[in-house]
Amino acid sequence: MTRAEEEVATQEKKTLGFWIYLMTDCVLFAALFATFAVLRNGTAGGPGGAELFDMPFVLVETIILLTSSFTIGLALLASVRGLKKQTLGWLFVTFGLGVTFLGMELYEFMVLIGEGHGPQQSAFLSSYFTLVATHGIHIAIGLLWMAVVMVRLWRRNFKKTDINRLALLGLFWHFLDIIWIFIFSFVYLIGGMA
Amino acid sequence: MSPKLDHHHSPVKYISYIVGYVVSIATTLLAYFFVVNKVWPKEALIFVVMGIAVVQLLVQLVFFLHLGRGNRWKVATFAFALLVVLIVVVGSLWIMHHLDYNMMNMSPDQMTQYMNENEGI
Amino acid sequence: MFEDILKAIFGRLTLEDFVHEPIMAGAGLSMVAALVLAMIGLTFFKRWKWLWRNWLTSLDPKKIGVMYLIVSVIMLLRGLADAMLLRAQQVLNTNAELLNSDHFQQIFSAHGSIMIFFVGMGVIFGIFNLIVPQQIGSRDVAFPFLNSVSFWLFAAGMILINMPMVVGEFSTAGWLAYPPLSGLEYSPGVGVDYWIWALQISGIGSMLSGINFFVTIIKMRAPGMSLMKMPIFTWSVLMSVTLIMFAFPILTATLGMLALDRTLDMHFFTSMAGGNPMMYVNLIWAWGHPEVYILVLPAFGIFSEIVATFSKKRIFGYTSMVIALVAITILSFTVWLHHFFTMGGGADVNTFFGIMTMVIAIPTGVKVFNWIFTMYRGRVDFKTPMLWFMGFIATFTVGGLTGVMMSVPALDFQFHNSLFLVAHFHNMIVGGVLFGAFAAFSYWFPKFTGFTLNETLGKFAFWFWIVGFFVAFLPLYILGFMGAVRRLDHYDPSLGWQGLFIVAGIGVAIICVGVFFQLFQIAYSIWKRKENMVSNDPWDARTLEWATTSPPPEYNFAVIPTVTTRDAYWEMKQSNTKQEIPEYKDIWLPKNSGAGIIIGLFAMTFGASVVWHMWWLAAISFVAVVITIIIKLTDDEPDYKLSAAKVAKHELQAKLKLQEKTV
Q1: Chains in touch with B (≥3 Cβ pairs < 8 A)
Q2: Residues B87 and B60 both lie in one domain
Q3: Are C295 and C243 in contact (CB under 8 A)?
Q4: What is the pTM assigned to this prediction?
């Protein structure tokens, strides 16, 4: 193999490897989901989802995250076409939406904890907080990654490796939105039913 | 200079994201509407929401993640991951449901329901 | 005020935590002494730079593999020492208290945890690193830096699990730490926390390694080596890492939740506030069962290679071997409840999992028959690796049979948590994984050192091990049958069981003689190495790793071979093609990197600081890890070039050396 062929092969390996990491993350979330499902009634006499969840708030959160998944797709398309300004622009929008999402989630947590319904109150709340916060931590890592990418991109121009790395970030971000579909559906919608 | 890494870069890609986005928003709003307005009784509603979630999953897999196009190892590892996820979630729920009954970790109402479902009482 | 400052800095660490009772203190002190001695030696012989450059920062999987094995051997010795103490206590029984109850419980917990996580996992990753790239005709793994990180996370975990000997205490909750015992209420000390973080940190290393080797095997095989032309060992590794990738996240999640219960007072697995301790048991075994297959599948693969080589025949039933491996992989996710039949799942649940457990025995049986059929009509050469294989067949089969006995839920109510169970799983792990490791060691040793191990000493080691093993564990089957419960430090003498315990104790002593022979064999063989130099292919073997020199160069193959059949190297030897002077090209290899060891170091301080509630240090360690990762990942020049001229020179030197050896 020539050096150039090797480099293409390396990118392919990285893409497959990262994809597989995302698949393993699915299993991690599955264990947390299973625990949430099993402990859903373990409220220790305290409030459950129906009493605690602010549905309109969560809907807005969901739309925001969904939109950010769309905008990062636009950033990826721009990067492949070599459009630096557009790429940075869409990344910036995605970042903003992501920060907003995270902020809303933190606000939600603070309200609950302030009312005495923190993860220490019951098994239901422990599993709710952990599942949602694990997703939130992944989002935070994604935002950190995005910031590093944006800074590097701003300072210099594209290399092939940068485009591939951005594609991996895109995969990560899309994956997080997919996990959120299930959090929204199973934790909030179903878990919030009386 | 645009570095050409992706062979399939054509306007079709934009459509992919737009369709994915619109359908995802629609399904999200639909599920939300059904639940908040209690359009069906609880058991049926759970299945509807699950179904809508699966639809949105497929839409995002295809239109955002482009699964199925090209790399068969991505599909294979996804399939295995899906299998493990289902086994862990469904298996845990089944096992824990039975354990909770036998180990008296249920409320009296839940016990009655269990006996109805499983033991013909 | 002063106390508050101390508490803020040192968390819950106090001077008292350094005080231990005599045996533990002795162990801790000798460990520290050994470490200090090593450091003095390195300083005296001026080898720090050599160590740093050639080993600690190396991204060569062969080096990383050796480091895994060194850690594993050290941990094996510790695990064996633990076992001897346990057995000694049971032999002494109520006549003397060698170990008080608390100490006994810490030791059996440590014994199991260390053997599974730091010997079992370490050995298989060591072998993967050493063998897989060469066997598929590659130069390296898919992600060399990640490989280094995985090793250093493993090492960090190893340090954490040994720290209790020096400061604090270890868990008394067994190798799986079931709540509520392992929860905050009943184990408020640091023991379970040490256990959690040692496993959590090394577990992440394992998972990353799993992904690494999966992509390596899928993407980096030599041209022409389709999946169905891969050696069976490579197939077994592919399946083992598939299990690692998809099972370890369950462990990560479960340990994480236990940590949250203990550290942040949550209620996943508590008895109160709606928690469900049984969910922990369920999840931990959903990981735990695949884990035992993770350990044993590579052993199966190793034996496939050894049986074929020493029978001078290709493996019988290649396709069915592959199908069996794949079947075992999928099925291993469907049997986990057999570890807790007695927990009250009821008839429906127990029946399903009982049947699946019986089913999973079938593909393993297929493999055993295939190995035996490989030997049939072959010209079998009973060198040490082949002896270990025969020992494996005897031992593992007995273990498998008792496993099928326990797969019947009704019977399991008698055997569960008895010494019968203990004998069963030792049969499987020692007979399967450990004997596999010993076989691999004697088989592949010449490849990496250029000289053979002494055959006679190897045979002695084997015979003492196998006899010792049966003497040590057959009594346990009888005891378990009669109702002896596991994890007890004494049994009432009026039961009349003491005789069997003494026999078991003798068995352990015999095993010790075996271990002595192994250590002596290594030392002796190194001493006599000049007389036992070998070429690249001392066993007339069949697979590609034997095509490289002994020891191989960093780049493994100067020219990547093209493969046309199974048993690629055997085919190359038979076809006897005229070796033209190959056209050498530039080779790119990964540069060394200190980031791996730095990440490992801070992961270790993170774990230790969470254990002791030193939050400031935990935060700093965490940030340090993140920063190191960012710095490393934004480095665009990770490789260096070995020019074609240099490769040619190296190959010429190797050829000359080979001629010297064979003259």
Answers
A1: A, C
A2: no
A3: no
A4: 0.95
